[in-house]
Amino acid sequence: MIAQTLKWIGGVDGFLELIDQRQLPAELVRLQCADIGQLYEAIKTLAVRGAPAIGVAAGYGLVLGMQQLKPSADPAEAIAHLEKSAEYLAQSRPTAVNLFWALQRVKRKAQEFVADQSGANLQSLQENVLAEANDIYAEDVDMCRRIGENGQKFIKNGAGILTHCNAGALATAGQGTALSVMFEAQRKGKKFKVYADETRPLLQGARLTAWELKQAGIDVVLICDNMAGWLMKQGQIGAVITGADRIAANGDAANKIGTYSLSILAGEHGIPFYIAAPSSTFDLSIKSGGQIPIEQRDADEVRFFGDRKIAPDGVDIYNPAFDVTDAENITA
Question: What is the pTM for the complete model shown?
Answer without folding.
Answer: 0.94
